[in-house]
Each structure stands twice: as structure tokens, then as C-alpha cells.
Write a structure and sequence with these properties.
Shape of chain B: elongated
Shape of chain A: globular
CATH class of the largest domain in chain B: Alpha Beta
Oligomer: heterotrimer
Largest sheet of chain B: 6 strands, mixed
CATH architecture of the largest domain in chain B: 3-Layer(aba) Sandwich
Order of helices and strands of chain A: HEEHHHHHHHHHHH
Helix content of chain A: over 70%
Number of domains of chain B: 2
Strand content of chain B: 25-35%
Helix content of chain B: 25-40%
Order of helices and strands of chain B: EEEHEEEHHHEHEHEEHHEEEEEEEEEEHH
CATH class of chain A: Mainly Alpha
CATH architecture of chain A: Orthogonal Bundle
Structural class of chain A: mainly alpha
Radius of gyration of chain B: 24 Å
CATH topology of the largest domain in chain B: Rossmann fold
Structural class of chain B: alpha+beta
């Protein structure tokens, strides 16, 4: 009787909480643990997994070729982040200082491109940047250049693609933090004799730094993994950590090595998030919503 | 009178937090009972246990003679008026009020009839189609009351229902609620922290503090005969003196306080017992000469004009500030003069319950611990 | 002097905003423009034609992948919205052992690079011997979008007065009845926003789909991905244009309130 009653009392809890918990457990927790396990296994000659404990995969990660790729990937992610901050900040600032109607329109305009698949949009860039592409044609027609510029399949093209795909992830958190800024503080600063530039560096920038941090995390981390951007705009000349992992699981069929690479990427991510929370960032600010 | 709600030895713990402590009392059929106390005293928790939103850790609750302890809120014949009104924001006023009857699958025509009746009862005819967001606070309150009453509950529970209204509207609603309760004859259990509201509306008041039922009685009893220092302080204003019983006579006690001697009616005291005496500010009087049985002097600190009366503060030798309320126009000793104070001996309330004595010694501290150790012994 | 400075700053802000928007829309405009191009190669604009819009219906693989995309997006959105909404309510209301773990798991798809979730799901499907196809795609899409639904619904619940649910139960509604009559309508805006987000994420996903799709279940992004290196035929441009127009239409209809609000504001300004 007592037991039955207890069950009846906890039924609503069970019904609401179990599905999501079980789903996340089976499809996030267990797979990630499994990836960790594979990373210590070895590749069988046929491309399968042989479960014999080894650290060999992690050893391979330190090879010079790979180190070069990590460096390149981190550099691309870094430039993408910095450029995104510089071009997004004034835009977010302008947006936050617009009228309510204009804000809503600008917000929608930032989100609408998401409704076309990112591959299509990157393909648009390919059309623009190609040797016989739109931009080269325009420049040649205007007699600014004589020979077509080699823009596509270069590292800057990859950075451009990354900035392009990830820009909203920088704009939205920046906007949220600038919008929260109390205007009275700026007035107080100017009242106390601060020039516009001073009040920007002493008031606005420090107070909106949470937005900058959140945006940076949301741009930097994906930029390490977005292999399709380098595939499309880098044309195989630029390799990211993402491409490396993808190749192990795809063409080379070396899952253990790919798993080890993934574990390293997870660790890098966790360190970055840790730093982010250390400087006062909130995990909740990292969601899209 | 037969009890409508019987609460017996009810305890409620939230983890280690003991919020309702062995509370027992009955609420009579057709009664307006108010649970009064400061926030966190356990009054709302007790109300929510009657409603079924919380489950007592132990003890039993009977409604209409039936044990409801393991019944869901929707299985109980009680309805609640919430502090936040809790109107369904997406339903019209009509649908809000009709909700309970719809759940009971009452016929449409009857629902319509009863909603109309309810709307006229709370004077909101013509509001059927409006949404809650289009109403003022007072109007929302009426809808909340109508929505609960339409189910003809055995008991109506009201959780600080007037808390969000401004003073004037609150006074008006107090009268309306009381009138409504009399007219319908339904048992009302009302929760508030406003003592004035409790005194004006209730048939009986249950004063709670720190999870304990301090006193249950009519407004008159609560005000005139507080049983503990807490009740004396919380209901209205009071001057509370600590004193030792010097002499017990037939009709009177002679008591010694830190600063003098006073008199009170004999209330079954023993010699040398330590008691508390509570005297309302309006019962205290000035005197040029010493009054028989009293030796209590102080310096007049100030007179404050408060409209219908004058509030005087007299400082005793030990720094204790005595409050007096005198009618405007009465003779008052000048500020800074020395004056005698006295009262009619029947106006002093002697509190000597051992249990309450312990509480009153430690003012405003966590009373729970002491109670627990006591019961443990 | 001060005003002039202010004006210059404002003007610069506007120009910059314009440039950013140009940056965001340039590739989309190129795709749209080239969908009307008579040339088969997306390089030079030669002349106007609607030919490619007709060609969409002849391209079986394109249609098939589009159909798959829609099936996966709709199914995963429905599943995600149901599980995510009731999960958000449960996680909001109840405390239980291991809640911290569930909360932490929820942040993983948001924070870690998508490729990790992609390969992790691929690995688990491999052990479970599940053939990659529509089913694995749906499961994968539900997995990465659940947190977003939970977060948006939870945000809505934060502003929800729990007494409203108690009132319904007090008035005789059982738990299920209370959920459908009161709770769900109150949090509906959050649920819809979450569903929209899940739909968008599903339609746009490349990375996780890349690992969890099979040969029989090519989605539009995967189809495009395989075509992109060699060159995309203009019928893809045409289909993309149609999808864009379609989504904008859906949003305009569902968010009609918002747009009419803007409109009335603008007309008010004019008066």
C-alpha cells in the first residue's frame, strides 16, 4: 500500500524526466564514453577496431604533420574569432542603439540567412570567389585587374567562410550584452569628464566583455571542426582538426586514431569552457537562444 | 458546532527544516478562521496541506469527517483563492469561472446559469468575454473568488488574497469578503500576516509563529488575553514587562519589575514565579501622584501627534521605552518631566505558561530548537 | 560640434550595418540570381530563364533528397519537441538524483564541436549494428536539438506562476488535464520557438548528418555536399531559392503578429 502510494506520487516525475534523461544517457553519455574506449584500441587490418589496450593512437598525434595541422586549424579559428569580434561589435552596438522596431528587423535579417542551408551559402561564395567567378569578372570588367586573382582555395578564403557561417553566433551574444548595458553609466562617465573614447574603453568594453567571451567561445570551438568550410573554400589545401577526424572515420577507416583526435578536441574544448567560466562567463549564455 | 476541518498533530519537514510543528486544531462549519503570523511561520504551508498541494510529513487532516491526507488536490472538496490570483491567462473570465464545473462535467446550461449567478455575486456582470490581463487587481481578485466558490466547496481557502491590493481597495474587499462568507455560510480559512485584517474579519484567529500554533481564539481573546509574549507583541501593540510575583492576594498580584512595583489581576500565580505582563498602550495612564499598588516612574521623552490620538514615549530608569496612546486633548505631562505610570489591574495580562515563557525569554530567535528539545525531553 | 560628431558616428554605424548585411546576403543573392541563369555553369550570368525551376521535377535524386530532408526534419522536430517540452517541465519542477548529470549532458551538444557528436553517434550505431539511414538520421537530429528545446521551454517556464497549475488541480483537473488545459497553452510560445529552432537546426545540419546518413537516405545538404566540388547544377539553386522563399513565407505567417506590429508602427510614424 505504502509502496504503491510512493510510486503514484513519483509517477509525474518519472514520466516527465525519464525520456529526456534516458535519451541523453544512451545517445550522448554512452557514445562519448565509447569514443574514449575506442581511442585506446587499435585498427585492424581490415579497417575495423581491435580491442587491445594501446596508447599508440595518442602517440601518433604528436607527429610533425599533425602538429602542423593543429597549428593551422587553431590559427584559422583564432583569426576567425578576432575578425568576427571586430566586425560584429559595431554592428551589435548599432543594433542595440536602434529603435525597437529596427532592432527586431535587424535581428530577423541576421537570422534569415540561416534558413538557407549553409552549404548553399558557401557555394554562393565559391561562385563569387572563383577564378572565373563573379568578383574577378567584375574587377576585370572595371579594368582594375588584368589577370584574375587567385582567391578561392586559399586559407583566407577559409577564414572568410568561417566568419561568414559563424558571424551570427558572435553578433547575438554581443548584442545581448550591449543591450543590457545601463545607458546611465555612460552618461555618468561623460558627466565625470570622460571623453567618448575613454568611456568606451573604461565602461562599455569591460561591461560588455561577457558578450565578447561568449561569442568567442561560440565561434572559436566550432571553427576547429567545420570541415565542410575548408572542403569547399580551401579545396583540400587547408586542413582543420575537423578534416583530420573526418578522414579517419571516412576515407582512412582508422577509427581508433580518429577517436583519439576527438578526445583531444574534447579536452581542448573543456579547457576553453573552463577558462570561459573562470573569467566569469555563464554556460547558459552559450546557447543559441 | 461540528468541526469541518480537523488538523491533528500535523508536522511538516522540508529536508531538515521543520516548518510546521505538531499543530492540532479544528475549524468549525461555517466559521471564518484566520491563520495569522509573520512570514515563514508555517501558516501558508498549513493551508497548502489542507488544499493538498503539500503532504504532511505526519499527522492527519480531516475535511468533513473524511481523512484527506492521501488525496490529490483535485479529489478534495476544498477550493483555494491564491495570492497571485492564478487566473488562467489564456482563458476568458467566463472560462476561468466555469473551469471547475467543466472538470466535473456539469451540463453546459447549468454551467452558464451558475457562472452568471457567480458573476452577479461578485458584481462583475458583463465581464464574461474579457481576458484576465484586461482586469484590474481588484477585479481579478473577484474572479478568483468566483472561480473557487462556484464549485460550492466545503471549505474555501484564501492565501493572503488581498496582499497585492492597495490599502483602500483592501479595506473594501475585507468587508465584501466577510459579507460573502456570512451570506453563503461556507467555512473560510484565511491566511494573512496583517493583524488588523485578521481582527476585523475573523470569527477565530489562529496565531502561528515558528511553525507553532501560539494561540487560537476569538479576536477579542487574542487581543485582550494574549497567552504569550509573541501574541501580545504581534497583535496590536503592547508593553511587555518581565516581573517576579511578590505577593499573591485574593483579587490581585503584587509584582516587582526591574524598575518598580506594579499590580495585576490574580491569574493563578505562585509566589516568586517569573511572569510577563502585557499592557496595551491605550490602557496605560499618566498620573502626577503615585497610584496605589504602583511604583513606576519615568521621564517623558516625547509626544507624537498621530491623528485621533497622541502617542507618548516614557523612558524608565533602565532605558526601557514605554508606549502610551492617549486621546488627543487629554492632559499630558510636559516633555522631560518625571511622571508616574499605572493601569487598571484588569487591563494587564499575565503570561506564565512555562512553554511560552521559554520562548519569550529569547526574543525573535529560532524558537524551533527550544521547542524540539523540550518535546524530546 | 558635438551634434555633428554624433551624426557622423550614427552614419558610420549605419554604413557598417549595411555592409554587414551585404556580407550576409551576398552569397544568397548570387544563388538566387544564378537560379535564373540560362548558362548551365554557375559562372557568368548569360540570360534570364525559368528552365531550372522546371528541371527540379526531373531530377529524381534531388527530389528524393529533398523529401528525405523534410521527413527527417519534421519527424525529429516532433519527437524533440515532445521529449524536450515534457523534459523541461520535469527538470524545472522536480529534484532527483543524477539531475546534475542530466543538466551537464544537456550542455554537451551545445558546447562541443558537432563533429564529435557526429562520430560518437556513428560509433554507437555501429556497435548497435543499426544500418545508417533515415532512422539513424532522425535519432541523431533529435539528440543534438533536444537541449535547445529544453532551454527555450525552460526560459518560458521561468516566467510561469506555478499557482496556475495548482489552481487547475484545485478546481478538479487531474494532472494530465492540467497539463493540456493550462500548462501547455501557457508555455506554448516557448514550445513553438523551440520547435522552430529544432526545425532550423535539422534543415541546416551538415556535420552530424554527414556521419549518420546512409546511401539510401541522402538529404539535401548531403546531396549538395557531394555535388559542390564538381559544380552545382542550377536546379539546386532553383530549389534552394524555393526553400528560402518557402521558409520566409512560413515565418511571415506564423509571426504575422510581429510583422503587423511593425507595420502599424511604421504607419503611425508616417501620420
Amino acid at each position: 500500500m505504502k509502496l504503491k502510494q510512493r510510486f503514484k506520487k513519483s509517477l509525474p516525475k518519472l514520466v516527465t524526466v525519464s525520456p529526456v534523461s534516458i535519451w541523453l544517457l544512451i545517445l550522448i553519455a554512452i557514445p562519448l564514453v565509447y569514443v574514449l574506449v575506442i581511442s585506446f584500441a587499435s585498427r585492424s587490418p581490415s579497417g575495423g577496431i581491435e580491442f587491445a589496450f594501446t596508447l599508440e593512437n595518442y602517440g601518433k598525434l604528436a607527429s610533425a604533420d599533425y602538429l602542423k595541422i593543429y597549428g593551422q586549424s587553431i590559427l584559422i579559428a583564432f583569426f576567425t574569432t578576432v575578425i568576427s569580434i571586430f566586425i560584429s561589435y559595431p554592428f551589435a552596438y548599432h543594433m542595440a542603439n536602434s529603435s525597437k522596431t529596427k532592432r527586431t528587423i535587424l535581428m530577423l535579417l541576421v537570422i534569415v540567412p540561416f534558413w538557407t542551408n549553409s552549404l548553399i551559402r558557401l557555394y554562393g561564395w565559391k561562385t563569387i570567389l572563383g577564378t572565373e567567378g563573379v568578383l574577378n569578372n567584375l574587377l576585370m570588367d572595371a579594368h582594375i585587374i588584368k589577370e584574375p586573382l587567385n582567391m578561392l582555395f586559399t586559407t583566407p578564403a577559409v577564414v572568410l567562410g568561417m566568419c561568414y557561417t559563424l558571424l551570427p553566433f558572435m553578433i547575438l551574444p554581443l548584442y545581448a550584452s550591449i543591450e543590457k548595458l545601463d545607458r546611465a553609466l555612460l552618461e555618468a562617465a561623460s558627466d565625470l569628464g570622460a571623453k567618448r573614447i575613454h568611456s568606451f574603453f573604461h565602461v562599455t568594453l569591460p561591461l560588455t566583455s561577457p558578450g565578447i567571451f561568449a561569442g568567442s567561445i561560440m565561434v572559436f570551438i566550432p571553427a576547429l571542426g567545420y570541415f565542410f568550410v575548408s572542403d569547399l573554400l580551401g579545396g583540400g589545401n587547408t586542413m582543420l582538426i575537423g578534416n583530420l577526424i573526418k578522414n579517419q572515420f571516412n576515407t582512412s577507416q582508422n577509427w581508433p586514431l580518429g577517436a583519439a583526435l576527438s578526445i583531444v578536441l574534447i579536452i581542448v574544448t573543456l579547457i576553453l569552457v573552463k577558462i570561459y567560466t573562470k573569467v566569469g562567463g555563464k554556460i547558459d549564455d552559450l546557447g543559441v537562444a | 458546532m461540528k468541526p469541518m476541518v480537523e488538523i491533528t498533530n500535523v508536522n511538516k519537514y522540508y529536508g531538515d527544516n521543520h516548518v510546521v510543528k505538531d499543530v492540532s486544531f479544528s475549524i468549525f462549519d461555517g466559521e471564518f478562521l484566520t491563520m495569522l503570523g509573520p512570514s515563514g511561520c508555517g501558516k501558508t504551508t498549513t493551508l497548502r496541506m489542507i488544499a493538498g498541494f503539500e503532504e504532511p510529513t505526519n499527522g492527519s487532516i480531516l475535511v468533513g469527517g473524511e481523512n484527506v491526507s492521501d488525496k490529490e488536490p483535485f479529489e478534495r472538496d476544498v477550493n483555494t483563492v491564491f495570492q497571485s490570483y492564478a487566473l488562467f491567462p489564456h482563458k476568458t473570465i467566463y472560462d476561468n469561472i466555469a473551469f471547475g464545473l467543466k472538470m466535473k462535467k456539469v451540463k453546459k446550461e447549468e454551467i452558464k446559469e451558475r457562472v452568471t449567478e457567480m458573476l452577479s455575486l461578485v458584481q462583475l456582470e458583463g465581464f464574461e468575454k474579457r481576458m484576465p490581463s484586461q482586469l484590474s487587481g481588484g477585479q481579478k481578485q473577484r474572479v478568483a473568488i468566483a472561480r473557487a466558490l462556484i464549485n460550492r466547496p466545503k471549505v474555501l481557502l484564501l492565501d493572503e488574497p488581498l496582499g497585492a491590493l492597495d490599502l483602500k481597495l483592501r479595506k473594501q474587499m475585507q468587508i465584501e469578503l466577510k459579507r460573502l462568507q456570512k451570506k453563503l455560510g461556507i467555512t473560510f480559512v484565511y491566511v494573512t500576516h496583517d493583524q488588523e485584517e485578521a481582527l476585523t474579519m475573523s470569527d477565530r484567529i489562529a496565531v502561528m509563529n515558528g511553525g507553532i500554533l501560539e494561540q487560537l481564539g476569538t479576536p477579542d481573546e487574542i487581543y485582550e488575553k494574549p497567552k504569550s509574549k509573541f501574541v501580545a507583541d504581534f497583535i496590536g501593540e503592547s508593553n511587555v514587562f518581565e516581573a517576579r510575583v511578590e505577593e499573591v492576594q485574593k483579587g490581585a498580584l503584587s509584582l516587582r519589575t526591574e524598575t518598580g512595583t506594579v499590580t495585576a489581576k490574580n491569574d493563578a500565580c505562585v509566589q516568586n514565579e517569573i511572569v510577563y505582563i502585557s499592557v496595551r498602550p491605550e490602557k496605560l495612564q499618566f498620573s502626577e501622584k503615585e497610584v496605589e499598588g504602583f511604583h513606576l516612574t519615568g521621564v517623558v521623552k516625547e509626544h507624537i501627534y498621530v491623528g485621533s490620538f497622541i502617542r507618548s514615549i516614557v523612558v524608565l530608569q533602565n532605558g526601557f521605552e514605554v508606549k502610551l496612546n492617549r486621546l488627543a486633548g487629554s492632559d499630558l505631562p510636559p516633555v522631560a518631566s518625571v511622571t508616574n505610570l499605572y493601569w487598571e489591574k484588569e487591563h494587564a495580562v499575565v503570561m506564565h505558561s512555562r512553554q511560552h515563557q521559554i520562548f519569550s525569554l529569547i526574543d525573535n530567535v529560532d524558537l524551533g530548537e527550544h521547542y524540539e528539545t523540550e518535546t524530546a525531553l | 560640434m558635438k551634434q555633428a560628431k554624433e551624426k557622423i558616428i550614427k552614419a558610420l554605424g549605419k554604413i557598417h550595418a549595411g555592409l554587414i548585411l551585404l556580407f550576409l546576403y551576398l552569397p544568397i543573392m548570387v544563388v538566387v540570381v544564378f537560379s535564373f541563369n540560362t548558362s548551365k555553369r554557375n559562372i557568368v550570368f548569360q540570360g534570364f530563364t525559368l528552365e531550372w525551376y522546371g528541371k527540379i521535377f526531373e531530377n529524381q535524386r534531388l527530389l528524393e533528397s529533398f523529401k528525405n530532408t523534410i521527413i527527417v526534419a519534421l519527424t525529429s522536430t516532433v519527437i524533440t519537441t515532445v521529449i524536450g517540452t515534457i523534459g523541461a517541465i520535469g527538470l524545472y519542477k522536480y529534484k532527483f538524483k543524477g539531475k546534475g548529470v542530466v543538466d551537464a549532458l544537456m550542455y554537451i551538444p551545445v558546447v562541443i564541436p558537432e563533429i564529435i557528436l557526429g562520430i560518437a553517434l556513428l560509433s554507437i550505431f555501429a556497435i548497435m549494428k543499426m544500418p545508417l539511414g533515415i532512422l539513424t538520421l532522425i535519432i541523431a537530429h533529435v539528440t543534438f536539438s533536444i537541449p535547445f528545446v529544453v532551454f527555450t521551454v525552460r526560459a518560458r517556464l521561468n516566467g510561469f506562476d506555478p499557482s496556475i497549475e495548482e489552481a487547475a488541480m484545485d478546481l478538479g483537473a487531474g494532472r494530465i488535464r492540467t497539463f493540456f488545459e493550462v500548462t501547455l497553452p501557457c508555455i506554448m510560445p516557448g514550445v513553438l520557438a523551440g520547435a522552430m529552432l529544432a526545425l532550423t537546426l535539422s534543415m541546416d545540419d551538415v556535420i552530424i548528418s554527414f556521419f549518420t546518413t546512409g546511401p539510401t537516405s541522402t538529404t539535401l545538404p548531403m546531396q549538395i555536399y557531394s555535388m559542390v566540388r564538381s559544380g552545382v547544377s542550377p536546379d539546386v539553386n532553383a530549389l534552394s531559392t524555393l526553400i528560402l522563399v518557402g521558409t520566409i513565407a512560413v515565418v511571415v505567417i506564423t509571426q504575422g503578429g510581429l510583422f503587423s506590429l511593425i507595420k502599424t508602427k511604421i504607419t503611425k510614424k508616417k501620420i
